[in-house]
What does this fold into?
Amino acid sequence: MAEKLSLNQSRIRSAWLFITPMIVVMVLVAGWPLLRTLWFSFTDADLKELGAAKFVGFSNYVGEYGLLADPEWWNAVLNTIRFSVISVTLETVLGLIVALVLNAKFPGRALVRAAVLIPWAIPTIVSAKMWAWMMHDQFGVLNYVLMGLHIINQPLAWTADPALAMNAVIMVDVWKTTPFMALMILAALQMLPTDCYEAARVDGIHPVRVFFKVTLPLIRPALMVAVIFRALDALRVFDLIYVLTSNSKDTMSMSVYSRQQLVDFQQVGFGSAASTVLFLIVALCTAAYITIGRVKFDGDAR
Amino acid sequence: MRANNTLRTTVLGWAVALLMFFPIGWMALTAFKTELQAVSTPPVLFFKPTLENFAAVFERGDYLKFTLNSVLVSFGSTFLALALAVPAAYRMVFHPTPRTGSTLLWMLSTKMMPPVGVLVPIYLLFRDAGLLDTVTGLVIVYALMNLPIVVWMLYTYFKDVPREILEAGRVDGASAWQEVQILLLPLAWPGIASTGLLNVILAWNEAFWSLNLTTSKAAPLTAFIAAFSSPEGLFWAKLSAASLLAIAPILVVGWFSQKQLVRGLTFGAVK
It folds into this structure.
């Protein structure tokens, strides 16, 4: 009895050892910079003289020159939300379809799998430049192909036309990130037990019904995680938009706005305030998603 | 009926693959064109391939050094992230406490700040620790950047591992470490492998931190591309060649990992 008790105690101790390294590293290298940014947001810090920063209270946030009074900021907020909602929805649906196709057996599957994963395996900085060039209004191959297929009548300025720029950005993001969703969902599909499918097949249940009644509920936890992480990245989208359309107002995201303030205008205080509000908006969206989607992480194994 | 289904899947699969691959194929084609052919309208499909763009790229920078840095940084950060996350996820799944849920949420919160928002504090931290322009520094940043997604993915995968097997091991007197090594790792291998693959690719693609925290010594391929393209933004053929060189290694890794995923499939069938 006593031996069993001490064994349990040592188990509890080693259980603590298991998680402590991660927490310590996270607090040191992720938590501390976060707090520091929060502090900067209450100062008038300038990139050239960080040491001379003075405490200015909430004036980076509210007031005449505050962030919340800047219409450009609100424009960036709306752009980001529009971008995130549309692209994440499209990517989830398409990713699900692609994963189901890749999970089925067909000739040349290995090659197809590799080809589908490639867009995501390319640095955004490369693919954004590649698309910028394909979308070029004069030399771009995209206009050429679409005109050849008689889908459009004249060359379009994909990234420069205010009406098209956001669609162009979303299109490239969907192209780039659908493979990510497909990979996550495919991995979940592969861990599914095969016996329920056998049973469903023997019972002659329609595949579509099987998908909604068996597959979807089983992969739901993995799907929810994939969507959360995808949404977190979409809400902070930066490099794709920055490379494709630079500082254009039509596509400016919250991250692009923050970078402009912090790096171009060197206003560390104001830029930090924008980053902090961005952080709060993302946190709010995540909380809403978790509540509405009823994502559970109470540690219970099913 | 069944043959019909296979045909439909095949056509759909190949159509998706072609659509996804087209831009990369186009880029690869451009890499072998002259600058003049690259901007000609209508676009040329048949031409005499040239290697001059690759020669120009190799002349400009030490491609191998950048590649080595990319390999070190992506695999190093993956190893570090898994080493921290596997024990943590094991504990959160098999020995949960009331705080487990909030720990997972708290990890997510580090992904809510835009990188540019913490650029100045991280830069100062790295400067004081002597980590600027070092491979070690990038390994730490990338591992941290990916830690939340790694922990969350492992958490989901570990939950699919039957508890009874681990409990049986416990009854037989296995220590916690043995439980992880002998039972959990083999059982959750497909999940761990795809998590690792994910981390390698994310680290390989990262450009923001590599551009801001390295100058020359530790700069990976993304920095190479950026350095290459900004002064020569209009030389599309050379940029295509440089991009092709930058993604070539990851294409190889992707091919092998694809086979790993298939092995994961057979594991599922055995289970």
